[in-house]
Amino acid sequence: MPMFISKRYVDEAPYRCGACKSLKWDYCGAYLGLFVSLFKFIICLRFTNRQSPLSISITMKPVNPHNNSTVSIENSREIDASECNEMDDASQFSYDLVQDIANYLLNSTAHRPKVGIICGSGFGRLAESIENAIKIPYKSIPHFPVSTVPGHLGQMIFGTLNNVPVMCMQGRFHYFEGYSLAKCCMPIRVMKLVGVTHLIVTNASGALNDRYNVGDIVILKDHINLMGFIGHNPLRGTNDPRFGPRFPCISKPYDDRMRMQAIDIMRELGIDSEVHEGVYTCLGGPNYETIAEVKLLKSFGIDCVGMSTVHEVITANHCGIKVFAFSIITNKCIAEYESEETVDHDSVIEAANNQQNFLAELVHRLVAQIDSN
Ligand code: HPA
């Protein structure tokens, strides 16, 4: 007896089956019902696109993330391509908005810098060495993001280095802080509209190249835009040709002349043995890399890894600013499972701090050379 037909129901059924005397009607009815359902099921699956009568249907309604209300499908509409641009990308910062920020800064100072500087973790002394300084906190600049990273002060400094007018970001913006790449790089477009023609980018990075030691300096000769491999690019979104072309060539992201000048300066300073030219990459962070990731990056031929710079350099190249970038090696990336070493932000800052005087001197001399070009 099928388990789902109760004994009581069978015993109490009033009719006997005419076809098979030993069974009551209910058995036959149940078998017949089952047979018909099975038949319907097979027909549905085989010949139509309709849902099987046995299948469960779950209706999922789209939810508006802003107020958690459900959105009726009947009221949805086709959207055009411009609406597909997330608010987070380059389209958010129009030329006019960037111009407004540049005008605000130009009205706040008499300095007219041609050289821009981005001070990464541990480059505070360089920022402090700027003379005739006008310091403008990011939070007072309209439409500007604010730095949230310990060690990044968050101000724009206008002043002079070796009598050359400069503008210096003391503290940059990182993807891991939650900013889009376009927002991280918007200040570089501001620099462009202020009149900057040359950019010096500094950062702290972990060594992948076994020949590099903590405290060494790496002059970037190229980079790999790993985040770009999955479509994260500061230029994503509507392109305004007043900044640069839709499809810029970035085959020489770092200016040869500035690189050569920097190498000469290192020689003058007598520290060229701790200086390398290398390939940098940026990962999104904020965590440092796993051992498997370190092995992968090494196998790509990358010399050092950080969490900045690449997108800034792309943005600068796009709008025709010449770039020099260097990295201070603050740690060796852990590449062996047996290693007991760890990496933390404090040790990264400490390692960068130890080289501050020298790095400031390098930038002073380089700025003077750029100005005399
Ligand atoms: N990985 C990523 N970013 C870094 C590192 C590192 O090892 N050191 C300093 N910044």
Q: What is this structure's SSE topology?
A:
Layout: H1 7-12, H2 25-47, H3 81-84, H4 95-108, E1 115-119, H5 124-128, E2 131-137, E3 155-161, E4 164-170, H6 181-194, E5 198-207, E6 217-224, H7 226-229, H8 256-268, E7 275-282, H9 291-299, E8 304-306, H10 310-318, E9 322-332, H11 345-353, H12 356-372
Parallel strand pairs: 1-4, 1-5, 5-9, 6-7, 7-8
Antiparallel strand pairs: 2-3, 3-4, 5-8, 6-9
This protein binds hypoxanthine.
How far is the first residue's CA from the last residue's CA? 99 Å
Order of helices and strands: HHHHEHEEEHEEHHEHEHEHH
Look up the CATH topology of the largest domain.
Rossmann fold
The fraction of residues in strands falls at 15-25%
| Distinct ligand kinds | hypoxanthine
Major sheet size, sense and barrel closure:
5 strands, mixed, barrel
Content-based structural category: alpha/beta
Q: Largest beta sheet: what is the strand line-up?
A: 5-8-7-6-9
CATH superfamily of the largest domain: Nucleoside phosphorylase domain
**Total beta strand runs:** 9
What is the total domain count? Answer: 2
The assigned CATH architecture of the largest domain is 3-Layer(aba) Sandwich
Describe it.
This protein is α/β, with parallel strands linked by helices. The chain has two domains: 1-79, no CATH class; 92-372, Rossmann fold (3-Layer(aba) Sandwich). Helices cover 34% and strands 18% of the residues. A five-stranded mixed barrel has the order 5-8-7-6-9. The longest helix has 23 residues, at 25-47. The chain is globular, with a radius of gyration of 32 Å. The structure holds hypoxanthine. Hypoxanthine (HPA) binds at residues 204-206, 288-289, 305-307, 330-331, 333, 343, 348.
